[in-house]
């Protein structure tokens, strides 16, 4: 893995897991110092993240973590509500005991994160559950699109979500696994639609205040 790729992966992880909150400024000079690379190298990573909508770069203002607008937040979640239930047919066709166990393991980690009151980990695991589920189908392009939507949903939840957005109030993922074990495709589609609608309803579009980020401490703990 190239150095640029390592930096990209670390920054993406920090954004998706909400260590870098929406609106956080990403100064090239500080990041260059933290990672021990040139500002040109950091700029390349930031431009890549900007293409994927995780970062916005403004002339004379530099880069910052994307803060989704209300319209973007609603469109991201509406897209998931439209698409993810449709995948349940293909997911069911490729479902087996080994796959079921893998997703039950993810749910066990979700429940542990909730017991630990670790909201960051809960959001990351929720996204992982959904984009890995999408990969079970045979449509790689659609699965990659849903993965991006899941990442962008993490930004939405970071900016506007509540604990309810990732709690069992939105539906326990184990319920979906049980339906897939029983090959109940129509019920699985209905469950997924209701689950995502509940997440959308839990969003409070008022925004949050960000704390000052210590980039050295943040990225040192990822080594």
Strand order, sheet with most strands: 1-2
What sort of overall outline do the alpha carbons produce when their principal axes are compared?
elongated
Count of DSSP strands:
2
CATH topology of the largest domain: Four Helix Bundle (Hemerythrin (Met), subunit A)
Mean pLDDT: 88
Query: Ends: how far apart?
Result: 14 Å
Overview of this protein structure:
- It comes from Vibrio ostreae.
- Residues 1-68 form the HTH gntR-type domain.
- GO terms for molecular function: DNA binding; DNA-binding transcription factor activity.
- This is GntR family transcriptional regulator.
- The chain folds into two domains: 3-67, Orthogonal Bundle (Arc Repressor Mutant, subunit A), CATH 1.10.10.10; 70-202, Four Helix Bundle (Hemerythrin (Met), subunit A).
- The two termini are 14 Å apart.
- The chain is mainly alpha-helical.
- The protein has helices spanning 3-16, 28-35, 39-51, 70-83, 88-93, 97-115, 119-135, 140-160, 173-181, 185-202, 215-220; strands at 55-58, 62-65.
- Helix 1 (3-16) crosses helix 3 and helix 4 packs antiparallel against helix 10 (185-202).
- The chain is elongated and about 55 Å long.
